[in-house]
Amino acid sequence: FSVVKTLQAVADAHVVVLLLDATQGVSEQDAHIAGYILESGRAVVLAVNKWDATDDYQRQTLQRSIESRLSFLKFAPVLHISAIRRTGLTALWKAILQAHASATIKMPTPVLTRLVHEAAEHQAPRRDGRFRPKMRYAHQGGMNPPLVVIHGTSLDHVTESYKRYLEGRLREHFKLVGTPVRIEMRSAANPFDDKAN
Q: How far apart are CA 19 and CA 105, in angstroms?
C-alpha cells in the first residue's frame, strides 16, 4: 500500500484505524501517517497487531514508543489485537463505533456555554498585559472533528495551554474518545482597544 494511497484513504475515512506492528514498534512512517491523521481531523483508533507475539520487555518498549512518538494522539484508544488468532477484534469494533459517535456528537449551545463559563470560573484565562479574555458563549461549529466556537472579547490572547484545558473539560463532559476536538476563538471588536488610557 503506497503512502499516497494511505493518505487518500485517511482523507476519505470517518474513522482511521492506525495499525501498528507490536514486533516492530512505532516507525517513522507510522508517526508521519499519525500526524497526517491529526491534521485531517479524523477520528482514530490505534490497533497494535501481533501483541501475542511479544514478551513483557517488547510490550513496555512499545508502550513507551507510543507515548513518546505518538503523544499528540493521546486521545486515541490503544487496542491490542492478533489478526491471526482473531483476538481483540470485538473490542476494536466497539472502539471504532465509539470514536465515530464522539466525532459526530451534537453539542447543544446552552450546554457548551455553561461548560465554558464553569471552566472560566474554575480557572480563568490569563491576563495578557491590559487584555483580559472574556468568554461570552459557545456553540458547535462543525462535526468530524467536533468544532467548538467560543465568542467573547480579547480571545486572541487566549493561550494554547488554556485551549487544551478547555478541550479537556469538553472531553470529560461529553466523554469524547478517539477524536480530535478543535476550538476556535472569535473576538468581538472592542471599541476601547484604540483608546489611550
A: 25
Question: Measured in whole angstroms, how far is the alpha carbon of residue 126 from the centre of its chain?
Answer: 23
3-state DSSP call for residue 190? coil
In sequence order, what are the residues at sequence separation of 6 or more whose Cβ sits closer than 8 angstroms to the Cβ of residue 65? 25, 26
Pairing type for strands 134-142 and 78-80 reads unpaired
Alpha carbon of residue 128 to chain centroid: 27
State pLDDT tens for residues 147-178: 999 999 999 989 999 999 999 999 999 999 99
The CATH classification number of 109-187 equals 3.30.300.20
Domain ranges of the chain: 3-103, 109-187
Cell reading at 63: 508502550
For domain 3-103, say whether CATH 3.40.50.300 is its number.
Answer: yes
- Give the side-chain half-sphere CA count within 13 A for 57: 0
Do the beta carbons of residue 41 and residue 13 sit within 8 Å?
A: no
The DSSP-derived string for 20-47 is EETTT---HHHHHHHHHHHHHT-EEEEE
In the chain the first and final C-alpha atoms are separated, in Å, by 63
In terms of phi and psi (left: phi > 0; alpha: psi -120 to 50; beta: otherwise), the region of 164 is: alpha
pLDDT digits (tens, 9 = 90+) for 104-124: 999 999 999 999 999 999 999
